[in-house]
Amino acid sequence: MNDFLIAIHRDITSSDPIPTAAQMQAAIKPYQDWVAGIGAKGRLVAPPKRWDLDGRVIKKGKEVSKGPFVENKQSIGGLFLIQAESYDEAVEIASGCPIIEFGASVEVRMAIPPVQ
Length: 116
Fold this sequence. Notes:
Blueprint (H helix, E strand, L loop, with lengths): L1 E10 L9 H20 L3 E7 L5 E4 L3 E4 L7 E11 L2 H8 L10 E6 L6
Antiparallel strand pairs: 1-5, 1-6, 2-5, 3-4
């Protein structure tokens, strides 16, 4: 089993966010059910956390810019850890995120095992 980071990216800072506030409200219960299903299968390592709208990005030369985004208006709306046998299985789990339907994207990253 491998640990995978699930990062949900969405536009939460612009004047016309995607998903909209109404779409996010509609997605709350399906999202909670989706996460509960992952937990029921014993695959949830760390539960989702919500993140603030502020954030900082640090670049070469110690340039610090304000905002939770790098090049566009999408920022991380949620992060959590799951366990899966492979990238394919992790992607299959992540593909069930109901917020994708409203314009969010979900990133999947596998934890690199420690060097022994």
